[in-house]
Design goal:
Length: 105
């Protein structure tokens, strides 16, 4: 367990080195979605549980990607919260909300 936790911390430090101004905001954004959608992934992402399913790399790549998108947003690119949420959900295989439950008419 400790090796997984140390490795996750190492990956987090790398994101912070690559995107020092955006890594915290990206982490907070991902945490909000993970808490709502996948408690197990949230625990792995926050180094509170071992990575039994070996998902830390996907979580890390998503953290990098969201940090990059936030950096681009601050440079004036059209990156909305909906776009960020969709990116997190798509990258991590999380569900999407359905409006009106798919009803016709």
């Amino acid at each position: 367990m400790m090796d997984d936790i140390e490795y996750a911390a190492k990956l987090d430090r790398q994101v912070r080195a690559d995107y020092p101004a955006h890594a915290d905001e990206a982490r907070a954004f991902m945490n909000k979605i993970l808490r709502q959608s996948d408690w197990r992934k949230w625990r792995v992402f926050n180094r509170k549980a071992p990575d039994l399913r070996r998902e830390i790399h996907v979580l890390d790549m998503t953290h990098h990607y969201i940090s990059l998108l936030l950096e681009r947003r601050d440079l004036g690119y059209p990156v909305t919260d909906l776009y960020l949420e969709s990116a997190v959900r798509a990258c991590l295989g999380l569900g999407f909300a359905v409006i009106e439950g798919g009803k016709d008419g």
